[in-house]
Amino acid sequence: MFGRNAGVAIAALFTxxxxxxxxxxxxxxGLGAPFDWQMGFQEPASPVMRDIIDFHNFMLWLIxxxxxxxxxxxxxxxxxxxxxxxxxxxxxxxxxxLEVIWTVVPIIxxxxxxxxxxxxxxxxxxxxxxxxxADLYGIDVAGEITLKATGLQWxxxxxxxxxxxxxxxxxxxxxxxxxxxxxxxxxxxRLLETDNPVVVPVNTLVKVQVTAAAVxxxxxxxxxxxxxxxxxxxxxxxxxxxxxxxxxxxxxxxLCGQYHSYMPIQVNVVSQEDYDAxxxxxxxxxxxxxxxAPTTEFAQQGITPRRPLAVTPGIAN
Amino acid sequence: MTETTxxxxxxxxxxxxxxxxxxxxxxxxxxxxxLIFAVVFGIVGGLMSVIMRMELxxxxxxxxxxxxxxxxxxxxxxxxxxxxxxxxxxxxxAFIGGFGNWxxxxxxxxxxxxxxxMNNFSFWILIPSALLLVGSTxxxxxxxxxxxxxxxxxxxxxxxxxVDMAILALHLAGASSIMASINFITTIFNMRAxxxxxxxxxxxxxxxxxxxxxxxxxxPVLAGAITMLLTDRNFGTAFFDASQGGDxxxxxxxxxxxxxxEVYVLILPSFGxxxxxxxTFSRKxxxxxxxxxxxxxxxxxxxxxxxxxxxxxxxMGVDTEAYFLAATLVIAVPTGxxxxxxxxxxxxxxxxxxxxxxxxMGMIFLFVLGGVTGVVLAxxxxxxxxxxxxxxxxxxxxxxxxxxxFGIFAGFYYWVGKMTGHQYPEKLGQWHFWITMVGVNLxxxxxxxxxxxxxxxxxxxxxxxxxxxxLISSYxxxxxxxxxxxxxxxxxxxxxxxxxxxxxxWGEGATTLEWSVPSPAPHHxxxxxPTVR
Lengths: 317, 533
Ligand SMILES: [Cu+2]
Known about the structure:
The structure holds two protein chains of two kinds. Chain A is an alpha+beta fold. Chain A is 38% helix and 19% strand.
């Protein structure tokens, strides 16, 4: 009987797939970067990402249960109501009670899901004050800094708004043509490592203002649960508190043209002392003329972009 | 009235040669043209995805021709072409132009569409549209904007003729769909056989009716948006240019006001086909017919007020996000009604598993899988993790590539005997299903994992850690494409078959009017309106 074979095959295929999804929950994760055959989220490094993972775990069980329920019904139907087992079909086409149930029960499930979802949204989406961080997440932040990230084609420019330090952060190595190349440090991640990583202190409220010069990009760091579009003419704001010292990677997450794949984001989370030392070094080394026009950076490297970098003065700088 | 019109048609007989096709005003011939068009572009779009998967099979840029001054851009052009072709030149022509043209008049007992000449124009205007789109990939640098054509990447970000050509291609395809929509609405409202009230209309006709309403209401918004792109690009306007006071996000709102109904345009006809197939092979009438029809109405209506869930990371403000989260979740309810009604239709039935039924059951299950990940994605609180990752690609291919495409194949195997008079080879049809089933799941399921791990979508090269799942996805894509080529062989074998077919070769379960006319359906049918009980 073909129906039986079909049922067994479908069951085998999807039990395997769903088991895989379940395994994603339990998987050991690396810190700050993806690893081979990863099936789940990256290890969280901020309270927002912990919230996201908790809610997603709840959702994953819910949708796995729904999928298995539907699969079970279909398999039962294949075995019980195939032409051999049930030669005479019923003529039943209405059952008001049943129709009410399968309308109302999903509504109840959705409401049960929407409540934590709204909570999550309103808790994490709004840029908080230090007090609010303490209230909501129980973290006493050490301080507060404001970082402005500007998406360029194809690199990120950062401004430490509080003290005027500029960073021009581009892909460290990958294809020779676009990334700056040079020697990669030991264990560096191709297409994730940048030449000038962002440096922030641990346990500090980092407010990130995000914009773009010419086309739309998106600034994202998965381990912080941060992703926000960088839109020309608009200053979007997001935030994170990094709870663990380490190196965290992300990638531009909005199609921005030819070298969209090559504009990674690297955030080094360091202790307050290391941060202070780094900042002092940056301030000492600052050359204002270099920092005003990112294009000169490319000129110094002897790189001619395929198209001139469109930098709108007043937005980018 | 109908008698005399039909008599006049009979007088000139069936035209032959190229005139039969180029000048065609016959809904069946035009439907056939649409189906051929869809198959051709399905292969073209599929080929593009195979090249993308070859490039993504391993880290590094090793496959796409050219050097690093063009390779990545070529990848983006393929992303764009694949999306636009599959949406506008494969799924829509297959369902609306193909099955819609063939089956709507047959199912409602009408002799043809209301405006046969406009029907002809709707099809033939697609040819220049397709030429423009294909041309946009070879003339100039190619349009590497993605199917969303977001400004300002599509305005100041991409000079040259390619994007203009792609925009004009969309304009023509849109005009084609608007004309087709007017045609279907008029046909369905005015040409139903006596006794066929709206509440007796087959569900496939319902699905097409709702679909064309969505098109009629949403396409003009797309047309406006891409016209503004065109003038921004060429005539110095600044609708979407922030440096001159425009707003890039305005484009996104306009696009998704069209784009979200558009995804229901792709899936609703599939719902219609699946209802017929499930009912036929369960040998039972559809369960909860009115609920099924109005669930589709509800999906269509709510589909217009959820567009900005595609823009959660654009920086909209938390209350706006909360609204779109709530509205999006609402859609799960009518969708659930459809799934459970199909299951209840099968429940107590006397099921056989011919090829159309395999596709239908595959569609139901895989659509559920794609649907539940859609519910996950609806939660704007999770969006900072999911937006623009491979997870989203996995999600929408489960609902589009499996939800819609499985529906197309279900419809093909279900109706091919009616349309051609040749029955498909059963064993080969089942092989086609199983190869596709393995291929698409291998392709798209791993995308959920790489998406969770953080892999962005639309990237030509990726960090080495994502290599594993991408390799699996690529193998899956090759299997899926092999299945598509195998389908061409099945079609060949179908036409070679000389098995004689009865009018209703599926037997007692097939009850709609198309089964009352001979197989193959003659050039003119329902010349006198049939009686509907
Ligand atoms: Cu970018």
